[in-house]
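In response to reviewer comment 3 from the previous cycle, which asked for concrete evidence that the modeling workflow produces usable outputs, we include below a single protein chain processed end to end. The sequence was submitted unchanged, and the resulting structure tokens are shown without manual editing.
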Amino acid sequence: MELSVILPTYNERENIEAVILELESFFSKKETFEIIVIDDSSPDKTAEAVQKMQKRFSNLILIKDQPKEGIGRALEKGYDRARGNWLLSMDADRAFLTKDLERIISERKNGFDFIVGSKYAQDSNYVKNSFISWVRSKISEWGNLYINLVSGVPLKDFSMNFRLLKKEVWKNIKPKDKENFFLVEMIVQAQYKKYRIKELGVSLIPRSFGVSKTQVGKQMGKFLLKSTALLLKRIAR
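The workflow returned the following structure tokens.
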């Protein structure tokens, strides 16, 4: 199998059907693929919506994550289950554009091992439709800059869950965080193991349904502590 698409979900019942239909339509004539949904114990019955769609799509896999542990743990389960040579993970909130799917997939032919979607790289388009979203974007931007500095990894965005990597890369890294810092660990470990990483500017648009699950204030302190730990490990290397 060429590709596994991995979707961690929490309370995405209003979005998940449209996302799956879009992915099935986009990839069906391009390559062999599977879609893996890891539902993090959503009380809105996201899992039940996926189960109904499994009657229509034989390549749709559902993992029910009990108990709720966070996006890092959900992604780990999805990556471990995946059978594809390439692993594409993305959020299920419809914040990404189909044209960016085409762009990230096409980067495979350019010799990269890990392609990372970025809301701060050249050609990106980060749509902020309120003052709160602007504040969140600035906190995220500064946090990513700090990670860049302490890790020595020359990327602008470590935290976006829109990324494509070879299965080989996943097998040779060991991120441990159960929450959002898992995404940072993936990139830093891959860089330290000398894999070829490409940062690709993509669009990030406001979701139509539901609310963001990222609690910026709560996550900021954790990111600072864990990022500083990266610096100490880097010094000790």
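The two ends are 37 Å apart (CA to CA). We consider this sufficient to address the reviewer's concern, and the full set will be provided in the supplementary archive.
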